[in-house]
Amino acid sequence: QVQLVESGGGLVQTGGSLRLSCAASGMIGRINGMAWYRQAPGKQRELVARITRGGITTYAESVKGRFTISRENAWNAVYLQMNSLKPEDTGVYYCNAGVTYLGDDIYWGQGTQVTVSS
Questions:
Q1: What is the DSSP string of 64-99?
Q2: pLDDT (tens digit, 9 = 90+) per residue, 18-27?
Q3: How far apart are CA 74 and CA 92, in angstroms?
Q4: Which of 115, 92, 110, 83 is nearest to 6 (CA)?
Q5: CA of 44: how far to CAs of 16, 41, 59, in Å?
Q6: Fewest beta carbons within 10 Å, which of 22, 24, 25, 69?
């Protein structure tokens, strides 16, 4: 059974940094990529950063130059380094994995809260 467990969230002041981790277990098949999404109160979940199987990274415009996604070679963990945090970065951050086995599946973690105070 695929499990994604996020950690590293918390309360930080504007301009501070946090590093989120997502521990992945039970992965079978081909991992096509992993990503971080976030959801602010009253808003839709949005893509923050993604890393593909080939190592290509993409970022939301709002976090470019401030956030960096990376992963372990064995896909057992993915990270999100967040610098120069702003209050608008506040939200629940979710880890996401795209896997192809018998079909294409998407898996989600339970989320970790990030709060940036002004």
A1: TTTEEEEE-TTSSEEEEEE-S--GGG-EEEEEEEEE
A2: 999 999 998 8
A3: 26
A4: 110
A5: 25, 8, 17
A6: 25
